[in-house]
Write a structure and sequence with these properties.
- By secondary structure, the chain is α+β, with helices and mostly antiparallel strands.
- It has 17 helices and 15 strands.
- It has 3 domains: 220 residues, Multidrug efflux transporter AcrB transmembrane fold (Up-down Bundle); 69 residues, Alpha-Beta Plaits (2-Layer Sandwich); 247 residues, Gyrase A, domain 2, CATH 3.30.1360.
- The relative contact order is 0.13.
């Protein structure tokens, strides 16, 4: 007997159990990861779970049509994400659609009216002087304390807060001031003063951080002091409303997170600099001062003067009244402090940022200067009942499609249908477990188009089995026995399957790239199941067929095996498969 030619998969023929063991281990690992993470079901999209979908269209200011670009739209998405998160919403989606649209999908259980108000209004960014601040309560996650420096020679002198000096350098403070225990009196004194209030906390010197527009009414000061005393920024619901709706000319309270991850509460004076006064903000890596990632700000001519005025006043005070808070949508995102007037029209914020943190702060500062507003184009609300009905209908459609495929396989392929059904079950197990893990992993949500993609994939997967089975049948029709027919049919079937799946995957990839929103769910599911089809056919269907070919039921061509030579119209056995005659005279009886 001739040995197999070099390069042929003799090991794959003789040891199909290895491939089966590999795919079964993969399924066990995915299933274990599913239960270990607690994500035992796929995450459902808005159209199945219920919720609100809001479409916003960007509208530029007159003469600023070029403002609709990828950078500005991505910045807007980040800010809207912060707003949605501020509502305590989980699993919300904010993404761009086309060039000038933003889609906000908010799952059920959220006040849709409040959500529409939050994401549809233009962000308000202000620079407000800090009158008082202290920790509300510890939080779970710490973030690095930012610091600013516009002068390479600047050095920190206070370990409680970071510092900034130079002509263009605010610094971000993120820890409580040493006078936090007596902030109430400081607030009252600061609000009563005309323009140079005196903070009477723990012997603090005279403060100059309150703008000239601050109210001098003792009643207003008492009211603000009471709000500050009652403010608990550790409460998520309180944070969602603190500082919201305050006029720029009014003092207010606000919340922000400090460098230790604790929630800090603030009393802030009237706004001195508006977000539109920021001409440009960007994250840069500073190699000159070893500050690492920093955020640079460039002000307009009018903004530079206002910024120089306020930093000149703040520099005369002690912490916390030498700080100014950068407030976005009522939340303090950074609270730099200064020790000299910053008159250069530029500023740099630093403080052990990593690239992501620096970019996030730069985006927030840039958003205040975006010449864009967003108009609400459409709002679609899907109730949980409607979403459940859609999911139920989708599952019924999938079940009907699967039953029809199985019935066809049973009628036409008989015993071979067992191999096809087992392969479909393996494919379903892989698809389900991967989708369950992709929800928390990359935010994948199973929407109705994605369910349609999974249903279409049933046909694509079944088609691969049919191609292989028909190749085997062709070999049997040529007169070969089952075991060589299985191996000879595989190379030809493999090429056809790979070409077919490549075309399907290419179509899914193109559809995913050129479309947005829910259609991407269909494309993603179709592409995923197409890849899994290749895995299942190579690691499960082919090895299982090799094993079954050794069983008498299939090898003997049983009439119910689907491989009966008579039913297939097979030719007589090939001459090459018959035993050669011995040399010598022929016995007349044998003749």
């Amino acid at each position: 007997m001739a040995a197999p030619k070099k390069g042929r998969s003799a090991s794959a023929q003789s040891k199909p159990w290895r491939s089966l063991a590999l795919i079964l281990i993969a399924i066990a690992a995915l299933t274990g990861g599913m239960f270990a993470s607690g994500n035992t079901t796929p995450r459902l999209g808005i159209d199945l779970a219920g919720g609100t979908s809001i479409t916003l269209r960007a509208v530029p200011e007159a003469g600023q049509e070029s403002a609709i670009n990828k950078t500005n739209m991505d910045t807007a998405v980040e800010i809207m994400n912060r707003r949605v998160n501020g509502l305590g919403v989980s699993e919300a989606e904010v993404q761009t659609q086309g060039n000038d649209n933003i889609i906000v999908n908010i799952p059920r259980g959220t006040n849709s009216k409040e959500a529409r108000q939050q994401v549809g209004t233009t962000a308000k960014l202000y620079f407000r002087p800090v009158l008082a601040t202290e920790v509300s309560a510890p939080a779970g996650k710490a973030s690095p304390s930012p610091s600013a420096s516009g002068n390479p020679s600047a050095a920190a002198t206070d370990k409680a807060t970071d510092k900034a000096t130079g002509s263009a350098a605010p610094s971000a403070s993120a820890s409580p001031s040493s006078s936090a225990t007596s902030q109430g009196r400081a607030v009252t004194d600061a609000l009563k003063a005309d323009s140079s209030p005196s903070a009477g906390s723990s012997g603090s010197p005279k403060a100059s951080s309150t703008p000239s527009g601050a109210s001098s009414a003792a009643a207003d000061a008492s009211k603000l002091q009471a709000q500050y005393a009652a403010l608990n920024c550790a409460d998520e619901k309180v944070r969602a409303t603190a500082g919201k709706g305050a006029k720029p000319s009014e003092a207010t309270v606000a919340c922000g997170q400090n460098s230790q991850g604790a929630w800090q509460k603030y009393v802030l004076g009237p706004a001195e600099v508006d977000g539109t006064d920021v001409k440009k903000a960007q994250a840069v890596y500073n190699t000159q001062t070893a500050a690492g990632w920093t955020v640079t700000m460039e002000f307009t001519s009018g903004g530079a003067k206002k910024f120089a005025d306020i930093t000149g006043k703040l520099a005369k005070n002690q912490t916390p009244q030498n700080q100014f808070a950068i407030v976005l949508d009522g939340e303090v995102v950074s609270d730099p402090y200064v020790n000299q007037a910053l008159t250069g029209g530029n500023a740099e914020i630093s403080g052990n940022f990593d690239q992501e943190e620096a970019q996030s702060l730069a985006n927030m500062l840039s958003y205040g200067a975006l010449p864009l507003t967003f108009k609400e184009d459409s709002v679609t609300t899907v109730t949980a009942a409607l979403g459940g009905d859609q999911l139920h209908a989708g599952l019924i459609a999938g079940a009907i499609g699967l039953i029809l495929v199985v019935l066809y396989l049973l009628v036409y392929y008989r015993g071979l249908s067992m191999i096809a059904v087992a392969s479909l079950l393996i494919s379903a197990a892989l698809t389900y477990s991967i989708m369950s893990l992709l929800g928390p992993g990359i935010g994948f949500a199973l929407n109705l188009p994605a369910v349609c993609g999974a249903i279409v994939a049933i046909g694509i997967t079944a088609d691969s089995f049919i191609v292989y089975f028909e190749r085997i049948r062709d070999e049997i029709r040529e007169g070969r026995s089952l075991r060589p027919a299985v191996e000879r049919a595989w190379p030809r079937a493999r090429r056809t399957i790979l070409v077919s799946d490549f075309v399907s995957f290419l179509a899914a990839a193109v559809l995913f790239i050129v479309t947005v929103g829910k259609v991407q769910g269909f494309a993603f599911t179709l592409g995923l199941t197409t890849l899994l089809d290749v895995v299942v056919v190579f690691l499960f269907t082919k090895p299982l067929m090799t094993i079954m070919a050794r069983r008498k039921f299939f090898a003997s061509g049983h009439r119910w095996s689907g491989l009966d030579p008579k039913a297939l119209g097979a030719k007589p056995p090939l001459r090459s498969n018959r035993r050669p005659r011995p040399a010598g005279p022929v016995d007349p009886k044998e003749a």
